[in-house]
Specification:
Length: 690
């Protein structure tokens, strides 16, 4: 952990302080002056295995500054020190003072002896998990360092150090969605999943209580109200992370960084067969299991350090439980503060704060993979508790009913990227892959699922969309066959774009009909009502809204025949697939579809792709291969402005639910403003030409 120079400096500082503290004789003037600096600053030094190189560096720098103020520089001090103390004297002082750095094995054995009286070395080896040879060497060193007496009992010195590092509190991280827990996470936050009838978070809290820890902070976010009862039943303190949807748990830890000293940090989705917490700890550690997995980026080396490994090369499975003593807690808290200032770490796990270059600053605590299980997925819960009632979700029941299968036949459940409106997951049943869609937060306010089902009835069998196995018009559940090898349209690839516009035009030419219309201006007003009286986050919203509404007369004057229009015809909803050796393009996600001017789909493609005006005009040319009149082109500009405001209002509603879309929402509002201005310029140009 330390360089030779750091070890030398630490040795010098300890030896210097201990020597002058105990030997008040033989001082010359310089000695008295330097000793007074040490004494008046009230600084004492202990060599411990928890001291970090940065901690040592800070001490040395502090003393260097103090010495300089007293007309001594660090170089003179070292020369003077080396003259007074020979290496022999230093070794003698260190031996007399028994200032020793305990290694991990010695700390583990001392911890074991504080919990259970010594019987013999073999039993101690079994309980501590170390070999008999390590036990014998460690006992010898601990006695020499005055941590054990000759009867192998902890001394006052050992007990004092234990008290200084005794666990005092715990932080449980329970703010996230638990995206990989689909479909269970649509009904329950992951911390309240039950194993053998007991919620995960309650088991963790009870295990903490067993070792005397009652100061417990639970950081919540998603479905935070579900955790409220813990305040009354277990006297925990809830800390709300309002950014849980947009940022990872690094930002959860930031909210409790003042409570990390002598604290356990625990993910809420852990099930521990044996209690992993103790009444006494001597060093900081991070828990990993003895199982090697490709997803881990750390492995345990011979020194029980956690060192980084290349991606997908295999490392010890990271459990996520950690203990921090004061010195490391201070270091981690500062690191968290700095990392959170950088947007690059918005999606980072809190463990980023534990790394120093190629390794963690804390040691490894290795457990057997069977003793501690991180429950990340539906299948992991089924594996550990096949009788859990929470396995009987509506989504799984729907799959079983539609595909006439038993729950155990639903395998390989994998969460797909969270969409703007829904959550979806991939699964296998009877050797075939499917995708199930589950409606997202607040979707019931945005989507009429009966109308969506009616659209699918109209387009069924026309090879326009993906193959639908099931759709529920009440709750929006949808099961589709997985299209192997499919890819989405690349909006920056003009060949892709031309093919998609040709497919879109062909769909519009079918002139399909349904009994409902998607009214852009009505929907814009409706989304605004969902804000529940809250004002827009945009200062000039009312002016922008008035400008966009003023475009409606031009649109109405130039609208053509209304047909079934996709409304959400964005690049991600165009799938390129191979069917019988031929390339086909399928349009997916028809939940907003309705009767409308088909040119709205052209505008929608533009704003989702975040196109500039040159790209917009190029897309219009790709759709209208026969040429586009100025009136139609300006009308599409009007739709870009109107649809920009529509989706901006939609984003504001979702934002109030804790769902953030970053640049997308800002750009939609800019489309409303910029294309209103472009329309005015185009109309003015037309007027001048006439």
């Amino acid at each position: 952990m330390y360089t030779n120079a750091q070890k030398r400096d630490l040795l010098h500082l300890n030896g210097f302080y201990q020597y002058y503290k105990n030997l008040n004789s033989g001082f010359n003037r310089s000695h008295h002056k330097l000793y007074s600096v040490i004494k008046t600053n009230g600084v004492t030094f202990e060599i411990t295995n928890t001291a970090t190189p940065d901690f040592i560096k800070n001490i040395i720098e502090k003393f260097s500054t103090n010495i300089n103020r007293n007309e001594h520089n660090l170089q003179k001090w070292r020369l003077m020190f080396n003259k007074v103390f020979t290496k022999r004297k230093i070794r003698k002082i260190m031996k007399e003072r028994k200032c020793k750095i305990m290694n991990k094995q010695e700390s583990d054995i001392l911890n074991t002896l504080l919990l259970e009286p010594f019987i013999n070395q073999r039993i101690l080896a079994e309980v501590s998990g170390h070999s008999l040879g390590v036990v014998n060497r460690s006992l010898k060193e601990l006695i020499k360092a005055d941590y054990l007496d000759e009867s192998i009992r902890p001394t006052v010195k050992a007990i004092t150090e234990f008290k200084q590092k005794t666990p005092q509190r715990a932080v449980i991280l329970a703010a996230g969605f638990g995206m990989r827990m689909v479909p269970i996470n649509t009904e329950m936050p992951k911390g309240l999943l039950k194993v053998n009838g007991e919620p995960l978070i309650e088991r963790i809290i009870k295990q903490l209580h067993e070792v005397g820890i009652k100061e417990i902070y639970v950081v919540v976010g998603f479905m935070k109200e579900k955790y409220e009862y813990l305040i009354d039943e277990y006297c925990v303190e809830l800390v709300v992370n309002a950014d849980y949807a947009a940022k990872n748990n690094l930002h959860s830890i930031k909210l409790v960084k003042e409570h990390l000293e002598n604290a356990y940090i625990i993910p809420c989705d852990i099930w521990c067969d044996r209690n992993p917490f103790h009444r006494h700890e001597l060093y900081s550690w991070y828990m990993v299991s003895d199982m090697v997995v490709n997803e881990s980026n750390v492995r345990v080396n011979r020194k029980m350090e956690l060192v980084t490994v290349p991606e997908s090369s295999g490392g010890n499975a990271m459990i996520g439980i950690c203990y921090l003593v004061k010195e490391d807690a201070d270091t981690v808290a500062k690191c968290i503060e700095e990392l959170c200032k950088n947007q690059r770490y918005d999606g980072a796990f809190w463990e980023e704060a534990l790394y120093n270059k190629d390794r963690m600053i804390v040691l490894a605590r290795v457990v057997h993979s069977a003793d501690v299980v991180e429950i990340n997925t539906y299948e992991q819960l089924r594996e550990i508790d096949s009788n859990s009632n929470q396995l009987k979700t509506d989504a799984i029941q729907a799959i079983c009913n539609v595909l006439k299968a038993k729950p155990e036949a639903v395998t390989n459940i994998t969460v797909l990227k969270k969409g703007m409106t829904n959550r979806s997951f991939l699964f296998t049943c009877k050797g075939k892959k499917y995708i199930m869609r589950i409606s997202g937060e607040g979707t019931d306010q945005l989507i009429n699922r009966r109308q969506e089902a009616a659209v699918y009835q109209v387009i069924q069998g026309k090879h326009i969309c993906d193959d639908i196995a099931y759709i529920n018009p009440q709750n929006g559940y949808k099961i589709t066959e997985f299209l192997e090898g499919a890819r989405v349209c690349n909006p920056l690839n003009y060949e892709d774009v031309k093919k998609c516009m040709m497919r879109l035009h062909a769909f519009h030419d079918l002139k399909l009909k349904v009994n409902h219309e998607f009214d852009i201006f009505w929907q814009t007003e409706f989304y605004e009502t969902l804000w529940d009286g809250m004002p827009s986050i945009y200062k000039d919203y009312e002016k922008t809204k008035a400008n966009v509404l003023s475009l409606k007369p031009y649109i109405d004057a130039h609208v053509g025949e209304k047909v079934l229009t996709h409304i959400d015809a964005v690049p991600d909803n165009f799938l390129f697939v191979e069917k019988d050796g031929k390339e086909e393009i399928r349009l997916i996600d028809w939940e907003y579809a309705g009767m409308q001017d088909p040119h709205v789909d052209v505008a929608m493609f533009c704003i989702y792709s975040l196109y500039n005006k040159r790209q917009v005009d190029r897309l219009i040319a790709a759709y209208f291969t026969e040429g586009c009149s100025d009136e139609i082109r300006i009308k599409i500009y009007c739709y870009i402005a109107a649809c920009g405001l529509l989706w901006s209002n939609w984003c504001e509603y979702k934002r109030n639910l804790g769902v953030e879309f970053g640049e997308y929402s800002l750009r939609q509002y800019r489309y409303a403003k910029d294309y209103y201005r472009i329309v005015q310029e185009e109309l003015k140009k037309q007027g001048e030409e006439e």
